[in-house]
Amino acid sequence: MRILITNDDGINAPGLAICEAIAAELAGPDGEVWVVAPAFEQSGVGHCISYTHPMMVSQMGPRRFAAEGSPADCVLVGLHDVMKDTPPDLVLSGVNRGNNSAENALYSGTLGGAMEASLQGLPAVALSQYLGPATHGLDQPFEAALAYGVQAVRAVLDAGDLTGDGAYQMFYNINFPPVPAADVKGLRAASQGKRDGTRFSAEPHLSPSGRRFMWIRGGDQRAKSAPGTDAQINLDGYVSITPMRADLTDHAALSALSEALG
């Protein structure tokens, strides 16, 4: 198996090394693991692509490249340049430092990379490590992802056709809980949740020169979502696995709108 890896934390991020270890075990001794990751951190860029300007791509080592772009850019570089003659069988994006459960999924560059791979017709999985008080003192904060990453991705691959039954191909969002590996309770399928009262905001600050700047602030990541949804599953100690696709249509509302319009 040939696996392409990207992330949104950057080429030197510790979570990327965890993803490489997961990919190496999945690929097997006869497989190949390729890395095309952002040269600099790209957290929060979502599915952004560098449509209006070019990017520099540098080879950092064997099968290892850094691109001055977003995770989605990196997937495009991997598929249409770096691996154009030997395309990957699977794309992994992560392991992200922090969760991409609930509303975070809408902002995530990690999911943006997986989404782009799915739009290109490839099986894709996004991987993220929820962090919290129980992981703060660990020598390896990503140990839940390291211990359960291979099992979680294999569960997705064993579930069957990743293309789904719609016009947009599926990809998967996997979040590892904010607990030590020994405390992980197992794997659970989950829908995307919504944390009540948790949202991003903007906070003004003055620079030493007196200029006014804005900092973006995140919401409380300890807030719970509805039972059975991803953030709640994670806080309960389970690895959440959520099938997704890039279809933003509200199909129930579409039917109601069609009736209203006659």
TrEMBL record:
Its main location: cytoplasm. Its cofactor is a divalent metal cation. Binds 1 divalent metal cation per subunit. Residues 3-196 form the Survival protein SurE-like phosphatase/nucleotidase domain. Signal peptide: none annotated. Its EC number is 3.1.3.5. Transmembrane segments: none annotated. Pfam families: SurE. A divalent metal cation binds at residues 8-9, 43, 96. It is found in: Cytoplasm. The keyword Cytoplasm applies. One of its GO terms (cellular component) is cytoplasm. Nucleotidase that shows phosphatase activity on nucleoside 5'-monophosphates. NCBIfam families: PRK00346.1-4 (NF001490), PRK13931.1 (NF010541), surE (TIGR00087). This is 5'-nucleotidase SurE. It comes from Pseudoprimorskyibacter insulae.
